[in-house]
């Protein structure tokens, strides 16, 4: 395998033969990741990558992300939900293009905000699967937020997964017992479950 | 009587000076042979044990690049740049951190399963070997790191950890793309119910109990302070709209069955 890994001194990229690429897709992935990291380190200019702190966080990207987010919120406000989804998508794409050694905490804060907004926009455009996906990822990142349970619950409800929706609402309520919206949605969901079971009076 | 009491002289066996030396030599050679065979067998069993993780391509890549870097036969301009090596070492450390964290996560599970007899000695040994191997891998990375720049270790591992977390997050985001289709297939019947019925739902089915901007703003408070005010303005207009939709749709159910669901 050693002889099959090529190094291009001009671009400073590593590559493997196309045969090996198809044979070992994981190796190809690792090489791509390594090339990305190399370019990021070179672009950084420092001898070694700096320690990630809020000060070293790339603020230019943050500004662009903020602008896109604001654009998305504006579009949402005007009822242009597809447009707002597009804006949030671009912003998320920008976040994924940050340097790998950028502060994780800063990245996750930006991302969670955008995912929340995008999940809401998806719910408005009735793309419930996508909304479910976003809400699910959000719950993976911050479990103790009742609003995220509400998002996933609503998506589940409209996907016809009423039991899952009920579980989501109840879990959300375990974090905030008096959450009006969760309580209201839970009542609706329980009614729906009764209706589905033929117990509706 | 005198004849009876005569003690026979003990027969002295004459042995060579080399005899004890030969004895010690034989014992030692047997011991050495045993040790070599025992070690070889142990090494073979270690080699035969199946690793818990897949092949570590990052470590292989780093070794390969390092060999190229120190190879005098390759012209200097064709040898890998030092930053490529540093990046490769960082990625090797990222993989080591990821594996160590996975092993640490599973530690209590392995112990519990082994204590309850749910996994055999072989698997537990496999786990222990992997644990030891990861320790050695980390030690080697520290040594390698010091060879590039003295004192880099202090900042090396925090950076590697951050890369590890960022990559994990990106992996999850990437996984979301395909997941949507998989979920659609899994819940096909439900998707068929909701998706094509889009235009109908507006008229007949309950209006979407979409999370209004109130919730969005609620979370914005925690994360981005600046946008808080803006979205709060939206809140009022959107809340009205949502309340109306709820009244018209899901509210119908409520009127009939308010509180009934809760009892259950």
UniProtKB/TrEMBL annotation, chain A:
Gene3D superfamilies: Tetratricopeptide repeat domain
TPR repeats: 146-179
InterPro entries: TPR-like_helical_dom_sf, TPR_rpt
Keywords, ordered alphabetically: Repeat, TPR repeat
A single MF term (Gene Ontology): Hsp90 protein binding
Domain of life: Eukaryota
PANTHER family: STRESS-INDUCED-PHOSPHOPROTEIN 1, TPR REPEAT CONTAINING PROTEIN
Protein name: Uncharacterized protein
Organism annotation: Spathaspora passalidarum (strain NRRL Y-27907 / 11-Y1)
Automatic annotation (TrEMBL), chain B:
Ranges for region Disordered: 197-264
Pfam family name, one: Sec66
InterPro entries named among the record's database cross-references: Sec66
Coiled coil: 124-186
Residue ranges with Basic and acidic residues bias: 212-226
Transmembrane segments: 12-38
Alphabetically ordered keywords of this record: Coiled coil, Membrane, Transmembrane, Transmembrane helix
Compositional bias per record (Basic residues), positions renumbered to this chain: 253-264
Comp. bias (Acidic residues): 227-242
GO cellular component: Sec62/Sec63 complex
GO BP: any one term: post-translational protein targeting to membrane, translocation
PANTHER family the UniProt entry points to: TRANSLOCATION PROTEIN SEC66
Name recorded for this polypeptide: Translocation protein SEC66
Organism in which the protein naturally occurs: Spathaspora passalidarum (strain NRRL Y-27907 / 11-Y1)
